[in-house]
Design goal:
The chain is globular. The longest helix has 18 residues. The chain is α+β, with helices and mostly antiparallel strands. Helix content is 30%, strand content 21%. The strands form 4 sheets. Strands 1, 8, 9, 10, 11, 12, 13, 14, 15, 16 and 17 form an 11-stranded mixed sheet that branches. Strands 4-5-7-6 form a 4-stranded antiparallel sheet, covered by helices on one side. Helix 1 packs antiparallel against helix 12, helix 9 packs antiparallel against helix 11 and helix 14 packs antiparallel against helix 15.
Length: 520
């Protein structure tokens, strides 16, 4: 049983502020003029874009690999390896590569590499079991299921600079999805199947190449063969994994880093006072939410899941753990404007739903909440305190991030405090996609008629060419999702980065494209 109350949780957090203030140093660690020093939260699970699933991996892919299409400096769509693209019906997409592309080792980069990578992505023996952005490519689903050879999916290269994708439905935003499809160097992957991502074998086409990779530390150096190498101002980047938010902030304050992601959200006000304009906030597609294991008998009833949502005081969580700067929300797709009313707790309705499902004071619902140690476990304690007010008995199990991810994937959990960041994907509809069939957040074991209806509406949304119509369809799917409540939305966060005075970064977009940064 959880012993800490809300007040004790907050006192614990304030103690961290004292340590942060005491650790602030004047001056800092000297750094070479051309070295950018970055602190990130978690170690990437893989540097192979077909295998890595962590947000830290996605962040590093943007530095090390070159996608078919690219993020513009404003976050929109821009040419990448492909210079142009076109389609008459949104079913057949033809991409034309830039002329004279080469890999970092000087080998030619051609359309055959792109096709080979697409086939590898849907091969169950080499890819990760997630269709990702290839969900609509003809034959991709069957290939991933082992029912069709990957070489027979509808991706072709009629000439060395042309790649053609044939889809089984219209996908109007297919070029947008290709901003995170990273072709791989076939010659190097085939030569070193399991070791090509090691520094001594590294070959890629991005703005940087991997020079060193040790436990919790990476070194990147500029790729002179990158298509826009002349625009890359930073020659080298050191990346350290500092898994505790307060520790990242301390090390940044000490002058050890030029760029640090995710400072402690419950200390934003304090940091704003102490580091001033070195703390940067950005609108971002970030959702903090609760995963509910629908396979557990006591969580299989949607009434129970809705009761847990109704029992939460999201405004309190926002105020005390996000400095009041997040948006309290019981929706997945963000709502804005005067018409939106933030959710309020309804303990009476929650207790009534629990009673209907058979849980009473004599026979209470008992849950274990998993969370990562650090700032998130205190948030979980506050959530459990809310639930105790509606008769739910709970305990906290705090662990390292990897242990939590493995437990969720294995189905060994009741409730898990989770978060995802869609990075530079500003379209709000991207928020719902992780929960779609085979999405990276589709791990709550939700099934049944409501799930089938949700999947059908999501498929219809993907097929729509008109963005406005697609948005309406996503909202219809979300309505079913929220009624079933396999996941409980809590808040939509803002993105915070600590950026040193020696680093010049764009003001209106998160500093995730390190090729666009400069050192003063």
């Amino acid at each position: 049983m959880v012993k800490l109350t809300r007040r004790q949780t907050l006192v614990t957090g304030l103690a961290g502020l004292t340590g942060l203030a005491a650790s602030a140093c004047s001056g800092g660690t000297d750094a070479p003029d051309d070295l950018l020093r970055v602190a990130i939260e978690t170690e990437p699970d893989s540097l192979d874009p077909l295998r890595g699933q962590f947000a830290s991996a996605a962040l590093l892919y943007k530095q090390l690999h070159a996608p078919l299409t690219e993020y513009a400096p404003s976050g929109g769509l821009a040419p990448g390896l492909a210079l142009t693209w076109r389609s008459e019906d949104a079913r057949v997409w033809r991409f034309t590569l830039r002329p004279d592309l080469v890999w970092s080792d000087g080998a030619p980069l051609t359309a055959d590499d792109v096709v080979w990578t697409a086939r590898r992505a849907v091969d169950p023996t080499t890819g990760f079991a997630d269709l990702g952005d290839f969900f609509a490519v003809i034959g991709a689903r069957e290939a991933l299921a082992g029912e069709r050879h990957p070489d027979t999916i509808a991706v072709s290269a009629p000439d060395p600079r042309t790649v053609v994708f044939e889809l089984d439905r219209p996908v109007g935003n297919f070029p947008v999805l290709m901003r995170e499809f990273y072709p791989l160097p076939r010659h190097q992957v085939e030569a070193y199947p399991d070791d090509w991502i090691r520094p001594e074998h590294w070959v890629s086409a991005g703005p940087y190449v991997l020079d060193r990779h040790e436990a919790l530390s990476l070194q990147l150096v500029k790729n002179p063969r990158f298509t826009a190498a002349d625009s890359v101002k930073v020659n080298a980047i050191s990346v350290d994994v500092i898994d505790t938010p307060s520790a990242r902030a301390r090390r940044f304050r000490a002058g050890d880093y030029d760029l640090a992601e995710r400072p402690p959200t419950d200390q934003i006000g304090f940091l704003r006072e102490t580091v001033g304009d070195q703390l940067h906030a950005y609108p971002a597609p970030i959702l903090t939410y609760l995963k509910l294991n629908c396979a557990q008998p006591y969580l299989s009833d949607p009434r129970v899941r809705r009761a847990l949502s109704l029992g939460l005081d999201r405004a309190f969580l926002n105020t005390h753990f996000f400095n009041g700067e997040a948006q309290s929300s019981d929706t997945v797709i963000p709502r804005h404007g005067d018409a939106y009313t933030p959710p309020r707790p309804d303990p009476d309705a929650a207790r009534a739903l629990l009673a209907e499902a058979g849980f009473t004071a004599q026979s209470p619902l008992r849950l274990t909440v998993r969370a990562t140690a650090g700032d998130r476990d205190r948030l979980a304690i506050a959530i459990l305190d809310d639930w105790s007010r509606i008769g739910v008995e709970g305990e906290l199990l705090a662990s390292y991030p990897l242990d939590l991810y493995q437990a969720v994937d294995a189905g060994d959990f009741d409730v898990a405090l989770a978060r995802f960041d869609r990075g530079l994907k500003s379209d709000p509809d991207f928020m719902l996609q992780p929960f779609s069939r085979n999405g990276f957040a589709d791990n709550t074991n939700w099934s049944g008629p409501a799930r089938a209806s949700f999947d059908a509406l999501m498929a219809d949304a993907y097929a729509m060419i008109d963005p406005a119509g697609r948005a309406v369809q996503f909202r219809r799917a979300e309505t079913i999702f929220l009624e079933a409540m396999p996941n409980i939305p809590l808040v939509h966060e803002r993105a915070y980065w600590l950026i040193s005075d020696r680093t010049r970064a764009p003001e209106d977009i998160q500093p995730q494209l390190w090729r666009d940064l400069e050192l003063r």
